Amino acid sequence: MCCPGWERAADAFLRSGALPATYACAHVRAEKLASAATGREKRSQWAATGDEAEPFASPYMENCVAGAAALASRGGGGLLLLTDTSAAHGTPSNQGSEHFREWRSRGERLLRAALPRSAGYCGAPGAVPGPDCAAVEAALCRRATHVWRFGSGTFSAFLVGDAADAPPSTRFLSCPDIAAAAGKLE
């Protein structure tokens, strides 16, 4: 790793007891998954709820989140949840996802409910002061027993890298890919 501060912050987080000794890392790029929708799914992805707090639902994305949770939770141990559904986790660009920003808080709530044993790292304000949260998450993921990556993007590559001692990882680029793999679990 290039920056010792990241390692120290990761060590402090692990000592805090927020994660068990062994854990899987799940990185969900919900915005990228929403953007990857095509055809009918793309056109009917968002449904107005009439609720000001959560103005949009998305059966497409909510099934996708459930499938990702089913796959990630089969890893056993604890889960380190990384997600771009919350404003605290980055700045979604809304590329190709007209109502993603409005769905973001609902997606975050559903994802956390689907992974009840997860330790939300970046989602916990002030959990680790100092270095960039994403870099600390990457340091933590490099210590996981397995890394589950849902969605595209360069950060997914940064999490694991090409080091010989990198943990094994599984990557799904689209909701249909996730649904097919999750369907095999049933």
General description of the model:
- The protein has 186 residues and is of the alpha/beta class.
- The chain has 8 helices and 7 strands.
- The strands form 2 sheets. It has a 5-stranded parallel beta sheet, sandwiched between helices.
- Helix 1 packs across helix 6 (133-141), helix 4 runs parallel beside helix 5 and helix 4 (59-73) crosses helix 8.
Please give the share of residues in helix: 40-55%
| Overall average pLDDT | 79
Query: Span between N and C termini?
Result: 39 Å
CA-based shape:
globular
Number of helical regions: 8
The number of E-state strands comes to 7
Q: Strand pairing plus helix content: what structural class?
A: alpha/beta
Radius of gyration equals 16 Å
Q: What is the strand content?
A: 15-25%
Describe this structure in a few short sentences.
This protein is of the alpha/beta class and 186 residues long.
Helix and strand arrangement:
Layout: H1 4-15, E1 23-28, H2 30-35, H3 39-43, E2 47-48, E3 56-57, H4 59-73, E4 78-83, H5 100-114, E5 118-120, H6 133-141, E6 146-150, H7 154-160, E7 169-172, H8 175-183
Parallel strand pairs: 1-4, 1-6, 4-5, 6-7
Antiparallel strand pairs: 2-3
